[in-house]
Design a protein that fits this description.
alpha+beta; 4-stranded antiparallel beta sheet; 4 domains; about 15% strand; 5-stranded mixed beta sheet; elongated; about 625 residues; about 45% helix; 12 helices
């Protein structure tokens, strides 16, 4: 069967075109990105941009750590610029120029690349500053004199020979302060395996220069601790850590008046770092801003060779071919169930064709929804046929009675006495009730059911309905009573609500034997008002509960009017509840009774004025409530 869909609008063709466009864009973007990435990679590889930036920062930080100011830094800046091909500029934090490799009046880059501060060094760009953030080359007053360097150098040689006699090879490393330190073959310190013969303590004893600087540092730390309200009971001493190739003071003695905690230890370490920065501040250059820019040399470009171009074209063609093949396969699997759905939808309506559900994806869900729609359509068609039959039955019986009596009266067989006229009037009322109920249902289905809302008290509404049906209930020997749990308010059409409750009460009277009880009750449940009509009648079978609100449904399948009713009352109740934004439900136990529950939104304060509420006497004999 021809689908009649133009080729350009076919889902399969559109998917193929879309996939080809996406593949072409992907290939083009990938090729462009590859060229740009290769160009950038070559540029970074040739110029070593990142390594050069780190080297520039490291050397300028070394200059600041070993000089008291930036005078003479211009030579270092120019040398670094010539070696790296980068423009290097140093300014104060206020952007006052200090040194610049570019010509005068050349504008600076918009942002500084880094801050040069040896007392607050980037721990990732300068090894050895991981603990305190202070450049290890900033030694200040800890720098040894030539005499001290010579003496410690001899002691280091003696210790190295001692280590060698004990089977350990070491290397002498000079720290920035000039102190020699022995390191093992792996570059680590040797204090963990010092032979007893070599542990004379002479090499690691602070020199007079270091002792003087440590005494000054100890005073600064003590002042900081006093300001931090952390006095020590024992004398404070700050010593040097000789296990690391840098000047690294550490807290050595002194005890807190209270038990040591992590907070107090942290405060002591912070005071030591703060005191070190204060002590070294006079020996290092002021903080400066570092600006980096591109040099005068043009960046390298990447030229694609013919061989590389052929590879790119080949890969692009392969990607396109694979994309088309995969898209065709996926699209075919996607279109097949859609075609089955189209074929099923084109079948005659009376066949109610279903489609097989072969997948659990969106197409399978669509197929299930189509099958559900078909089942609902089949069920609605059956209900429509049953409804037409029910309407014909409901109208045929009274019309047949009226026609028969009118014909025998016309023929003179029966005299038109008052009793006959009353019987005909009763049959006409039956017809009128059925037509009115059908009209209400039609208006509800079409959304044209008009409501005249106003504030209504639920307890008074129950009293009005009970008053309207009490005579009929008393005549059937049934007790009709009301029970109100408070006085909740509703925003409802009082006439329509009396009609809904009246239908429920009439239904209960028809199915409740003599000496039975019907109870109308109301209560508040959260944001809803609950209205219940409970009876002690014959009840409803469990399998029939789901059908009680269907049109023309009767528990008595013979359609007998012995119990009265047209089979539309409960359907009208459901429509009226929905029109009031509420619900109606039914529970029942055969032989015990049934409970019909209306749940309607409660009227909140400020939602309407409670003025004008009718009293129970206003509806005595109100036909709309029956």
């Amino acid at each position: 069967m021809r689908s009649g869909i133009p080729l350009r609008k076919s889902l399969l063709v559109r998917l193929l075109i879309t996939s080809v466009l996406i593949a072409m864009c992907s290939v083009a973007a990938t090729a462009w990105l590859a060229v740009e990435t290769t160009t950038r990679a070559l540029q970074e590889e040739q110029g070593q941009v990142l390594a050069d930036d780190t080297e520039i920062l490291r050397e300028l930080s070394a200059y600041a750590a070993t000089h008291r100011d930036w005078h003479g830094a211009g030579h270092t800046v120019r040398t670094l610029s010539e070696r790296t091909g980068r423009r290097i500029a140093l300014t104060t934090p206020e952007r006052t120029p200090i040194a610049d490799s570019a010509t005068v009046r050349t504008s600076l880059p918009p942002r500084a690349a880094a801050t040069v501060d040896p007392l607050r060094t980037d721990t990732y760009s300068e090894r050895g500053a991981q603990l305190s953030g202070i450049d290890p080359r900033a030694v200040g007053p800890y720098r040894l004199t030539d005499k001290e360097r010579a003496r410690l150098g001899k002691l280091a040689l003696i210790r190295q020979q001692c280590f060698r006699r004990n089977g350990f090879e070491t290397t002498i490393v000079r720290t920035p302060s000039g102190r020699p330190v022995l390191t093992g073959e792996d570059g680590g310190n040797t204090d963990d395996y010092v032979p007893t013969e070599c542990a004379d303590g002479r090499l690691n004893t602070p020199t007079p220069t270091e002792t003087k600087a440590l005494a000054e540092l100890t005073g600064l730390v003590r002042t900081c601790l006093t300001h931090s309200r952390l006095p020590l009971t024992d004398p404070l001493a700050v010593t040097l850590d000789f296990t690391y190739p840098a000047v690294r003071p550490r807290y050595s003695a002194g005890r807190h008046p209270a038990p040591t905690t992590a907070a107090t230890d942290r405060a002591v370490k912070e005071c030591i770092d703060s005191a070190r920065r204060h002590q070294l501040d006079a020996y290092v250059a002021p903080t400066a801003e570092l600006f980096l820019g591109s040099g005068s040399s043009a960046p390298p470009h990447f030229d694609m060779s013919p061989a590389n171009k052929a590879k790119v074209v080949g890969v692009a063609a392969l990607v396109l071919a694979l994309t088309v093949a995969v898209t065709a396969l996926v699209a075919t699997r996607l279109v097949r169930p859609l075609r089955a759905l189209t074929h099923a939808a084109q079948q005659p309506p009376e066949q109610h064709v279903r489609v097989p559900v072969t997948t659990r994806d969106e197409t399978g869900i669509l197929a299930e929804a189509f099958n559900d729609l078909t089942e609902r359509r089949e069920r609605l068609e059956a209900q429509r046929k049953a409804m037409v039959s029910d309407i014909a039955h409901e109208l045929r019986t009274p019309l047949t009675n009226i026609r028969g009596w009118l014909e025998v009266t016309r023929d003179g067989v029966v005299a038109p006495d008052p009793e006959l006229l009353a019987s005909l009037h009763e049959e006409a009322l039956v017809l009128q009730r059925v037509i009115d109920d059908l009209q209400d249902l039609a208006a509800a289905d079409a959304g044209t059911l008009r409501l005249h809302r106003e504030p209504v008290r639920a307890d008074e509404l129950l009293e009005q309905v009970a008053a309207a049906h009490r005579v009929r209930a008393d005549g059937a020997g049934i007790r009709l009573r009301t029970k109100a749990g408070g006085a909740p308010w509703l925003d409802a059409d009082p006439v329509r609500m009396r009609q809904a409750l009246g239908n429920l009460v009439s239904n209960a009277i028809r199915h409740t034997p003599a000496d039975g009880t019907i109870t109308l009750s109301t209560r508040t449940d959260g944001d809803h008002v609950v209205l219940e009509v409970a009876d002690t009648g014959t009840g409803i079978a469990p399998e029939d509960l789901a059908s009680v609100f269907e049109r023309f449904w009767r528990a008595e399948k013979s359609r007998s009017r012995r119990t009265g009713g047209s089979g539309l009352g409960l359907s009208i109740v459901r429509q009226l509840a929905a029109a009031h934004d509420g619900t109606v439900t039914a529970t029942s136990e055969p032989g015990v009774g049934s409970v019909f529950t209306l749940r309607l939104p409660v009227l909140r304060p400020g939602g309407g004025s409670p003025a004008g509420i009718a009293s129970p006497a206003d509806v005595q004999g109100d036909p709309s409530a029956v």
